[in-house]
Amino acid sequence: MRQILKYIAASAAMFTIASCTTDTTTIHGFEADTTQIDAQASGGRYNVAIRSDKEWTAVVDAPWVMVSPANGRGEVRCEVRIDSTLVNDARTTEIRFSSGGALLQSVSVNQEGYARAITPDRDEVKIAASASRDARHFDVEVSTNVEFVVETEYDSDEEWLTVDNYTLNLDRGARPRNTTLGISWKMNHVPEERTATLHLRSKSGEAIASPATIVVRQTAAPLIEDNRQGDSLAIIAIYEKLECWSDNAISTSEGMHRWECVRLWEATDPTLPSKEAVGRVRDIELSYFDTYEGIPYEVKYLKYLETISLYGNVNSMIKEIDLGEEICTLEHLKALRVAAFGLSSLPESFVNLGDTLEDLDLNSNNFCGIPAVITEENFPRLRSLDLTSNRRSMVSDLRNATADMGIHHNTAKDDVVERLFLWENLESLTLSYNYLEGAIPDFKVGEKGVRAYEHEDFVERGDTLNWAVENRLPRVLPNMRSLRLNLNFFTGELPEWLLYHPRLMEWSAENLIYIQQ
User: Is the pTM above the cut of 0.85?
Assistant: First the structure.
């Protein structure tokens, strides 16, 4: 029995050896099943079937081609590995099969180069008319082997796309590399779809394989009509675009007259601008929100707005916001409060509010100087001006002053503060907690249009204040009922017009001129 098992094992071994040995008795000469390999620029793996009755060796001079196995006899399947190219031009080489120094056959290898191309992963993007700030962004992956620039073509005058800076490292020659285009968009304010086309062009101007474009389509904004329903849509849009988080300010399930943030015109209001204003929005007040932009565009639809109050923008001290043009179109606006908002500038059109504005509160913003547009000539009806706490950074020594630290004026170097004190109709002026330095401006009768008090100035008050008249006290801020200059850096003597002002007893002493240090 043991002998039988040995015989079976030996037979199995002989069979295995026989199956691994190629029978060459039927092969004559050398044969390869192909004479040419055409490879793409990205390279790849290709098979070549060899039949040979003699030992052979494969040789290739190009380092980007490898043959495995590189020698053999009988029937052999060779794998040809071709690396990705790094150039734009095509390249070629050959694999030489030889035996004993004699060439048996050659197989040519041709590889195309990478075409100069810019290829975005999508050629069309559709976006909504509006969204929260964090959601107003999309990415496009771009595969390219050339440096490129992005040029944007709009179908309207407004530029509403911003392409973020991107990095591209072409560290592998002509082999394409990927980069990400981050694109931010502005909200659509008009009830029409709009389109923008991003053209990705070679930075050097060289031709590319095919045009690279990304079409961005934005849906239309809701139509807001000139009526009460239009006012409610405008309020909702403003609320959403400011990203307010007060849950009970607006309830779309209730009538607008129940909304906490608005007050409507009533027929009995003595200042009703017209009969058409009844039931329309008169006042709006919103607080605690998060925006990096100006007052939303939809405010322009609140045609009969008389008062607007916006207060409490998140991280307002790090933001730079322009008030925006739209609010400047309101023809009945009397009181404007935009506080702790992050404002750093006012548009030139702000002057359009001069015929109606009576109360302006811009406290706790980021102005680096009192805006030049705020003058008595531009706002003859203004009675109250609040520019409190426009400090963007903390500076205790003005020798270390910077250009962007907040409202900073030196009365010895400019007349900005002086011009405010010559504003005759102002009844309330608050300049507390800024970086105002130098002496409080003094005035002399007969200079800069300043005259002395006369008995006629006090007729309405029922007294004469003979001292002011007899001593020819300069008539400065004669209607002032609240003046606050505290927590600035004023130095020097207090001027007589301030010490003996006829309304001094009405002012709050602790908020008047208490200095910073």
Answer: no
- Give the mean pLDDT of 465-488: 92
pLDDT at 267: 96
Please tell me the predicted confidence (pLDDT) of residue 192: 94
Q: What is the DSSP string of 424-484?
A: TT-SEEE--SSEEEEPPP---TTSTT--B--GGGGTTTT---HHHHHTT-B--STT-SEEE
Confidence check: pLDDT of 10 > 50: no
Mean pLDDT, range 96-104, rounded to an integer = 94
**Residue 209: exposure state from Cβ atoms within 10 A (0-12, 13-18, ≥19):** exposed
Provide the pairing of β-strand 124-127 with 212-218: parallel
Contact 209, 116 (CB under 8 A): yes
Select from 367, 374, 358, 231 the least CA-distant residue to 305.
Answer: 231
How far is C-alpha 189 from the geometric centre of its chain's CA atoms?
A: 17
pLDDT in tens, 276-307: 999 999 999 999 999 998 899 999 999 999 99
For residue 6, pLDDT beyond 70:
no
What pLDDT was estimated at residue 511?
74
Report the alpha-carbon angle 395-396-398, nearest 5.
75
User: Across 17-164, where does the E strand assignment appear?
Assistant: 30-32, 36-39, 44-59, 65-68, 71-82, 91-99, 102-111, 118-120, 124-127, 137-144, 148-154, 161-163
Q: The sheet that has 307-313: what strands, in order across it?
A: 262-264, 281-289, 307-313, 335-339, 359-361, 384-386, 428-430, 482-484
Q: How far apart are CA 233 and CA 235, in angstroms?
A: 5
Q: CA 219 to CA 205: how far, in whole Å?
A: 34
CA–CA separation, 177 and 173 (whole Å): 9
Closest by Cα among 322, 508, 330 to 429: 508
**Alpha-carbon gap, residue 220 to 488, rounded angstroms:** 49
